[in-house]
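Budget justification note: compute hours in this period were largely spent on complex prediction jobs such as the one shown. Inputs:
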Amino acid sequence: MSHLTPDPNESAGSAYDGLLEHHEVAGDSSQWAFGTDFEDPLAGVDTTVPADVDPAALAAYCLMLGDDALVMSHRLSEWCSRAPDLEEDIALANTALDLLGQARLLLARAAAADPAVVPVLPEGSPVPAEDALAFFREAGDFRNVRLAEVPNGDFAHTVVRLLLFASVRLALFEQLASSRDPVLSAIAVKGVKELAYHRDYAGRWFLTLAQGTDESRRRLEAALRELWPLYPELLATHSVEQAVAEAGVGVAPDSVASAVEVVLEQVLAVSEVDRPRGQPLAGVRGRTGRDGLHSEALSRMLAEMQVVARAHPTGRW
Amino acid sequence: MSVRAREVAASVTDPEMPMLTLEDLGVLRGVREEADGVVVTITPTYSGCPAMATMRDDLVHRLADAGYAATVEVSLSPAWSSDWITDRGRQALRDHGLSAPGPAPHRAGPVPLTLLPVRRDLACPRCSSTEVELTSEFGATACKALYRCTACAEPFEHVKEI
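Corresponding output:
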């Protein structure tokens, strides 16, 4: 059976014309892609910095929280099509998407607070500030905690990392909800709802793997031993975090340490897993992830994440 | 004029759950008329909701078709809650084989850790059996969980409470 090929020159028009219908909106090409990005996730949001708050400190703080989410999101998204089963694949992708959304808002908030943090791109580049921050900064400019950048291991490794990450982030965001910065407060209120799902997901899998087979428990305990030295960094307070906490716009991580400990002890107890005794991973001359001190793994991750954007700094997507 | 602009905006549907209008989903927060056009305010369901740009484009197109130059703004506060899905929206979800959300949790104090699967009082949207089991808290879009009916054996999606 054959089909006639429609003649594009026919006066009645091609059968394919409907596919190319476009609306009379200047410069609009949105029919070419589903989900062309919002140019600015904070479009129309009042981003005025409270008068007595240092914009540079607020921006640096937003980069810290934003980079944590961006790097963790990327590691989780590396599981796409590789997870143990379809449900977990979807769950990890959803979690990555939530964190990517938080990262976009936080990077955009950083740029709005202090435009000086945004890398300068060639004249005429359409790259929005949040993308410039994500794709055009070097590893040394990223301020995420090092736990987020560790390369993926097995599924137990991801469960342990997500439990530590989400437990701390949820505790931080619960306090950040009352930030004097209305933008950070709004991001946190929304983030709390998402992070509650992430923490429960990781907690349930932690328990399941601990109480599953000898092999699943062996893998879980190995992952916990490997990642535990990176956990204290999540609860250490950097001078930027101290400054924004004192200004009432940020949260000092050490102030939520006891709340996080209660949660982790609960998970460890029901899972019958002993708390590891590993020493915290040291910084270098006092510098850690918050200062831009990272492992080689972050450079490799960024090389892959950034390569296309960097090859086309004036590209439109 | 802005009454009609509001009607147009309210009739635009969600790109991922097209049985719902943006109004029924509760993401349409305002339509106001200004000197140089209409300003529509929407709020994301989830921080990473990839449908936001499509919502914006659909709003701009539909309003352009109706003769309005529209811009779309984002409102982050108050944060969207599944409680904002209207009764009509809930019925539309059920009519299309989706399970509508129950009441969103309202907590005072820290978010409790929940290590056992969330118990939800819900019924299969196809056969109405309450013999259902959770497959995953995460589904094809950020706002849905996956369930399976053990009576009719059909899988279905449940819009999560947040």
